[in-house]
Automatic annotation (TrEMBL):
<dbReference type="InterPro" id="IPR002350">
    <property type="entry name" value="Kazal_dom"/>
</dbReference>
<feature type="transmembrane region" description="Helical">
    <location>
        <begin position="6"/>
        <end position="22"/>
    </location>
</feature>
<keyword id="KW-0472">Membrane</keyword>
<keyword id="KW-1003">Cell membrane</keyword>
<dbReference type="GO" id="GO:0043252">
    <property type="term" value="P:sodium-independent organic anion transport"/>
</dbReference>
<feature type="domain" description="Kazal-like">
    <location>
        <begin position="75"/>
        <end position="130"/>
    </location>
</feature>
<keyword id="KW-0325">Glycoprotein</keyword>
<dbReference type="Pfam" id="PF03137">
    <property type="entry name" value="OATP"/>
</dbReference>
<dbReference type="InterPro" id="IPR004156">
    <property type="entry name" value="OATP"/>
</dbReference>
<dbReference type="GO" id="GO:0006811">
    <property type="term" value="P:monoatomic ion transport"/>
</dbReference>
<keyword id="KW-1133">Transmembrane helix</keyword>
<keyword id="KW-0813">Transport</keyword>
<dbReference type="GO" id="GO:0016323">
    <property type="term" value="C:basolateral plasma membrane"/>
</dbReference>
<keyword id="KW-0406">Ion transport</keyword>
<protein>
    <recommendedName>
        <fullName>Solute carrier organic anion transporter family member 1C1</fullName>
    </recommendedName>
</protein>
<dbReference type="InterPro" id="IPR036058">
    <property type="entry name" value="Kazal_dom_sf"/>
</dbReference>
<feature type="transmembrane region" description="Helical">
    <location>
        <begin position="29"/>
        <end position="47"/>
    </location>
</feature>
Length: 273
């Protein structure tokens, strides 16, 4: 928000300045708005190259042995290293082991003791971590999920791409509004703004959170449990599936918008030739 808001404001003001500076006709504004939207769409497709690995959680997305195998059975939370620990499956207080694998709780990591308090707590003698090349009694785990380097490296690239998309899209925002004002009779301008806002809310603002939320929920790997029973928030997402579903849906919707922009531009050029 700190980065995108100023960029969007700058793009809108610059779009208005270009209209005034070059005294663009309505047909020229239509071309300008259409080109900026299509350019944003093409840039948006680069989002698919931003990759972030799935969080490696023992028993959920990674085997307790730490060795990836095609026949790995997911959702196998109990292993020989924690079979005698009586771990509760509905708890989620992740710890990061020395091996770089996240465990649902210190119990699932097979940890026997701990030192420190709060965020600085360190768990020791973790039997599930020991089984991966660590010496007996030398394995440990700290509170929190393990960091994913691919996500950290991809974020600046993602932010730069998002900034470019926001700026170009905002650049064509002002011409789009001006097209609406100039293509209707003066007595219908306020009515046109109302219809445009209503259409945006009915087609986008209201239903989008519902179907976006439903698709995002489908990519959840493990759900939390409320203290009073029932499903809580999602603990771990399949980030690759999340990316494909989320970006794919937006790409499909924007492809339809690109076609409508092209049709609008053709109709305006025919009418105001």
């Amino acid at each position: 928000g700190v980065i995108l808001l100023p960029i969007t404001i700058l793009g809108m003001f610059l779009g208005g300045f270009l209209i005034k500076k070059f005294k663009l006709h309505i047909t020229e504004m239509a071309k300008f708005a259409c080109i900026t939207f299509i350019a944003t769409y093409l840039l948006y497709l680069l989002y698919f190259t931003c990759s972030c690995e799935v969080l490696q959680v023992a028993g959920l997305t990674a085997p307790y042995s730490g060795i990836k195998h095609p026949s790995f059975a997911k959702n196998t939370y109990l292993a020989s290293c924690n079979a005698d620990c009586s771990c509760k499956l509905d708890q989620w207080d992740p710890v990061c082991g020395d091996n770089g694998i996240t465990y649902m709780t210190a119990c699932f990591a097979g940890c026997k003791s701990s030192t420190g308090t709060g965020k600085n707590m360190v768990f020791h003698n973790c039997s599930c971590v020991e089984g991966q090349g660590h010496g007996l009694g030398n394995s440990s785990a700290v509170l929190g999920q393990c960091q994913r380097e691919s996500c950290t490296k991809a974020f600046p690239y993602f932010l730069a791409l998002q900034t470019a998309c926001a700026f170009i899209l905002a650049l064509g925002g002002t011409p789009t509004y001006m097209i609406m004002f100039r293509s209707v009779s003066p007595d219908l301008k306020s009515f046109a703004v109302g219809i445009e806002t209503l259409g945006g809310r009915i087609l986008g603002g209201l239903p989008a959170p519902i179907y976006f939320g439903a698709l995002i929920d489908e990519t959840c790997l493990i759900w939390g449990t409320k203290s009073c029973g029932g499903s809580g928030s999602c603990r771990v997402y399949d980030t690759k599936e999340f990316r494909n579903v989320y970006l794919g849906l937006i790409a499909g919707l924007r492809a339809g918008s690109c076609l409508l922009y092209i049709v609008l531009s053709v109709l305006i050029m025919k009418r105001f030739k």
